[in-house]
Amino acid sequence: GLDSYLTWTIVRTVASELDKKFVDEAFALQRELTGVTAQPPRSRRCIERVDEDLGELLGQSYVKARFAGDSKARAVELTKAVFAAMKVTIDALPWMDDATRAPAKAKLDKMAYLIGYPDTWRTYTFDIARDDYFANVRAAARFELARQYAKIGKPVNRFDWQMTPPTVNAYFDSTLNEIALPAGQLQPPFFGATFHPAVNFGSTGGGTIGHEITHGFDDEGSQFDGDGNLRDWWSKATKEKFTAATRCVVDQYAGYEAVPKVKLDGKLTAGENIADIGGVKLGYQAYQLWKASQQQPVQSTIEDYTDDQLYFLGYGQSWCMKVTKEKAETNAHSDPHSPPRWRVNGVIVNQPSFGTAFKCAAGTPMNPGKQCSVW
User: Fold this and answer.
1) What does the alpha-carbon distance between residue 109 and residue 225 come to, in Å, rounded to a whole number?
2) CB of 182 within 8 A of CB of 165?
């Protein structure tokens, strides 16, 4: 009955916080869905729980160890360069009319960016004990729920991070019109103080910053204005041209396979694919504009690779990962992101600058001639 269902739901939700037999049973389902044969070490799971429940406390030590010195200043400089490239792109878009272009530029001007870690660290005012893991997790959950409830009726705080500093990820929030790049994302192989600038621009400028900015103007982000309000601010003519350009991306990715005989869902992945393609274009343009503004010439070759080639190599290498067949098949039906292979090859075939950089003749696999272009 209903009692049994609710009991099962609660137990399933907290299984990872209970003893070993519950943890093992929960993992058995994940093994079937993902093909992973072993759980992460207990120490790793504990660190992840600390990051989830005490993230900005752990983050202070992480930042001191991994994101000190001028790391934040370098990341901010890179971010500003990509924003400047987006402004140029909006001005030049052939499918956007002036009635839509003006609010698009206003939205970009209002878009905030959070880089590395918060300016003010969150404090945690609940007790924890060494001998009661479940109680600790529940105390953290109650604290976070109360913290969220306390926001009701107060001005929106755009600087309240939704990810912890060690997180290897980034996000765009449509309702806040802001992007966030935690310090964990701003690490090798994505970003490094000693990397050639082209690598940083490719992996982080295009693959992350440009990607997240483009989310503000993709099939979902375009429904929110510069103040984060759900509002239709596109003209009918611009919307029709945008839809047509998006259809090209949908059709392209629908032809790819996640695993043999399992195609991608072009509609499900459209927003992320648009952001991938547009982000890499933005990052490349940002690198060219940044390079032209430097007083000292940027090194043009490294070990027989040009800096333009390094840009695309940096982006491609940022998506090196191992995925099981089971996980890839599950994601094909549920994940709005394309598999890593297509987040590289599906993007590169739509980059005019790639063929030039690597001297790919027209009509070759990586320079097929017909390209999808939204941003």
Assistant:
1) 11
2) yes
User: Catalytic annotation on 97?
Assistant: no
User: Do residues 124 and 57 lie in contact, with contact meaning Cβ atoms separated by under 8 Å?
Assistant: yes
The closest alpha carbon to 87, from 230, 242, 285, belongs to 285
Phi and psi, residue 301, nearest 5°: -140, 145
- Reading phi first (left if > 0) and then psi (alpha if -120 to 50, else beta), residue 10 is in alpha
**Catalytic status, residue 212:** yes
Q: Please, what's the b/e burial string for 139-166 (b: 16 or more CB within 10 A of its CB; e: otherwise)?
A: bbeeeeeeeeeeeeeeeeeeeebebbbb
Cα–Cα distances in Å, from 92 out to 97, 339, 353? 10, 31, 17
pLDDT, position 175 = 93
Please tell me the predicted confidence (pLDDT) of residue 297: 85
Domain ranges of the chain: 70-116+164-375
Annotated catalytic residue: which of 212, 218, 272, 308? 212
Residues of the chain with confidence (pLDDT) below 70: none
Q: Which of 178, 276, 307, 308 is catalytic?
A: 276
Are the C-beta atoms of 204 and 186 separated by less than 8 Å?
A: yes
Q: Which overall architecture, per CATH, does domain 70-116+164-375 show?
A: 3-Layer(aba) Sandwich (3.40)
Q: Quote the CA–CA distance of 205 and 290 in Å, as a whole number.
A: 11
**What tokens appear for 320 in the block?**
């090196």
The β-bridge partners of 259 are 262
